[in-house]
Every structure is written in C-alpha cells, then in structure tokens.
Amino acid sequence: MADAPTGVSRALREAPPDRVVEAADLAIRSILGASGTAVFIADYRISGLWPVLDSRQPGMAGQALQGTVQRCFSSQQPVRTAGDDGRSRLYVPLSVWGERLGVLMVELPGEPPETVVRRAVDIAGEVALALRAADRKTDRYRRACRQERLSMAAELQWELLPGRSVSHGSFHLAGQLEPAYTVGGDHFDWSLDDGRLTVTVLNGDGIGLTATLLTVVTVNAMRNARRSGGGLVEQAELASDTVFYQHQGHRHVATVLLELDSATGRVRAVDAGSPHLLRLRGGSVSRVALEQQLPLGMFAETRYDLQEFDLDPGDRLFVVSDGVWAADPSGRETYGERAMARSMRATRLQPPTDAVGTVMRELQAFHAEADLRDDAVVVCLDWRGLAGREHG
Fold first, then answer.
1. Which residue among 106, 201, 278, 314 is least crowded, i.e. fewest CB within 10 A of its CB?
2. Is 11 in a helix, a strand, or coil?
3. Which residues belong to any copy of the PPM-type phosphatase domain (predicted)?
C-alpha cells in the first residue's frame, strides 16, 4: 500500500469528470481492500450531507449533520465505527485548501490499523482535489448538494463564489450566503496571492436577479483590477466607475475591501459605505472603526482612501451585511444591537467554518424561524499569527 495515493491519483486523472466517484470507489476497493465506499457532499446550507452514489448504497440517504458524519465533518478528523458483523466504517473528511466539501466513507472487513487510516486520509485529499477540479466540468456534484431548486439569482451568486472557505498557515477564512436557495445581491469574494489575502464583502442594492447582476458586474470589475496588479484603491475605483457609467448613479453597492498581510496581521481597508466589521478579541466583541466613504457607483470618478489597522494573534474578524446587522423582525431591536455579539462570542471555540453557521442559525432563531427578509452574508476570518504558521 506504499503507493496508495499514487494509484488513486492515476485513477482519478484518467476518469471522466462525472465519474470521479466511481473511479475512487474502484481504486479504494483495490488498494485498501475495502468492501464499499460512499461519498457525501455538503449541501448549500451545510445542514446535511448527501450521497453521490446513493443508488449503490441502500440506506445511505442524505444524513443530517449529526452523529458520526457530523463528528467527522465538523472535527475534520477520521472517525471509526464498528458493525455487529465484524466490518467497520471509516469516515474521513473531504477537504481541499481548508474548504470542507464532504465526507468519504470506507467500509472495511475489520478494524483498520493506523497505517490504513493514514492512507485513507491521503486518499481522501486526492479525491477532494479531484472533486473540486471536476466540479467545473460536470453538474453531477452540484445536483448532489442542492435539495431544492435555486432561483436564477442564487444560481449566479453561487457560481460567482471562489469557494466557501480557505486555510493558510496563519489564517482561516469562511463565509456563508443566506437564504441559500434564493440569495440575491449580497456576496463575498477572496483571493490569496503571495501571502496577501484580499477579501471583499458586498451589500447588494435591490432584490432578486436585478441585484445579482449588479453584484456580478461589481465583483468582476474588482477582480479585473486585482488581477491586473491593482491594489484596493484601484479595485474600488474601477468597480465604482463601472457601476456608475452603467447606472448613472441610480444603483450603487456598499462594499468593504480588506487586504491582510498574513505574516504581520496588518490589514488595509477601503470602506465604501460598507457592510459591518467586528472584531472578537478574547471574549469581547467591538466594532472596527473605519471612515465610511461613498458606496461604489454613486458618483462619477469617486476616489477612495486607504485605511489600516492591526490584528493580534488569535483575533477573529466578522464581516456581516445589512441583512444580518439590521434584521428587525416584528419591530424589535435590530439583531446587530446585542444578539449578534452574543452569537459571535459563542463561536470562540469553533473554527470559522462552523462559526459562520452558528451566527446564521442564531439569526434564523432571531427571526423565529421565519424566512429572512433580506439577503445575509457572514464572513469570518481568524488570524493565527506567525505561531499558527509555524505549527499549522
């Protein structure tokens, strides 16, 4: 089994993109002596995991995030269970670059030794990478993770995302869009280049497809500037000019642009009328004070100023859109007044991938389980500092 990952890698490379899971199944059976496998993919709300090979796995229908599957998915650690028939099941997280895709289940004839567990972890990494690459070539895996039809606006929004999370030696970032199947204009984007993490969060203007189209234009204008080597100011100014000349000031986009130096914790920022930025340090939540400038697209040739602040190792930043901060169901005080700080403090021991879900669930509870009235985006960024880079 010394070349187990190599054998799986070759099988995955040679498989058509829509047959990656079948190729992995055959390779794992051969290499690990498995009697069966299953691949579960997380849905858009990250509320359940759904099988790709459901027709071949009786009784393996979608699983809510609880029990064995939840422990594996949430902890990002292998979990072993033993059956009455002497067989065992090994659950291994499917993750790539810090983005949690799902769980790989491997059924084995007996209790697996630690060497088999380590090989299964390596194989799961190969499968996750193949799934991430194949996702752009087939709709199969997208179908597995949606439990209802997306609106056209939501389809565009999810397609626009670079991913839902990313990890680095010194930081971990995660975000979530809600309502997942009908989200309109609110959005987030990120890119990692040479140790610099750029994050943008947009509070879309309007509702539905109209809002989404405005967001698509804005995000791609910022990407165009960024990919051409432009800094935050150039990104904001190009996006603002693009939106203005298309809508003549009648539409605009409130945005915050952040650039984290992953080595030092120094953050550069452009606050264009923006979503709300909060810092969790220890057990205390505070607003990050930035000078608000004009939203993108309000006036022609608007110019923006750069601001800076520092993070301490262990700091957690939350960026939330108005759909989170200003939620006021039944005429009560807004969610951002006190309830949001409580939910953010409750995430102290959770990784960002779980923290964004906690804040969203608390927001839903604040709405007494009614549908959200507005789009909501939560982005969570942890900066671990140089110690985090050294110790992973």
1. 314
2. helix
3. 166-383
Distance separating alpha carbons of residues 50 and 146, to the nearest angstrom: 9
In this predicted model, which residue has the larger pLDDT, 363 or 94? 94
The lowest-confidence range among 49-63, 191-205, 235-249, 361-375 is: 49-63
Whether pLDDT at 57 is above 50: no
- The CATH T-level fold of domain 4-144 is Beta-Lactamase (3.30.450)
Sign of CA pseudo-dihedral 148, 151, 155, 161? negative
Residue 110: exposed, middle, or buried by beta-carbon count in 10 A (0-12, 13-18, 19+)?
Answer: exposed
Cβ(249)–Cβ(271) under 8 Å? no
Q: Which CATH superfamily is domain 148-391 in?
A: PPM-type phosphatase domain (3.60.40.10)
Measure the CA–CA gap between 360 and 328, rounded to whole angstroms. Answer: 15
140 backbone φψ class: left, alpha, beta (φ>0; ψ -120 to 50): alpha
Name the one residue in this structure whose structure tokens are 């047959």: 19
Q: Do domains 4-144 and 148-391 have the same CATH topology?
A: no
The one-letter code for the residue type at 100 is R
Ramachandran angles phi, psi of 275, nearest 5°:
-55, 170
Distance from CA of residue 43 to its chain's centroid? 12
- For 196, phi then psi, to 5°, come to -110, 125
Among the residues of 228-295, which ranges form H helices? 232-247
Amino acid identity of residue 39, one-letter, is: V
Please report the pLDDT score of residue 391 as a whole number.
46
Please check whether residue 168 is in contact with residue 198, taking contact to mean a CB–CB distance below 8 angstroms.
Answer: no
Strand order in the sheet with 99-108: 63-64, 48-51, 36-42, 99-108, 88-96, 79-82
User: For residue 353, which of 70, 28, 8 has the smallest C-alpha distance?
Assistant: 70
One-letter amino acid of 237: E
Taking alpha carbons only, the member of 37, 54, 40, 59 closest to residue 108 is 37
Helices (H) and strands (E) in the chain, counts: 12, 17
Q: What digits encode the pLDDT tens for the residues 348-373? A: 999 999 999 999 888 878 777 556 66
Let me know: does 288 contact 317? Beta carbons within 8 Å.
yes
Cis peptide leading into residue 78 (ω within 30°) = no
**What pLDDT sits at residue 372?**
65
Contact 253, 211 (CB under 8 A): no
180 backbone φψ class: left, alpha, beta (φ>0; ψ -120 to 50): alpha
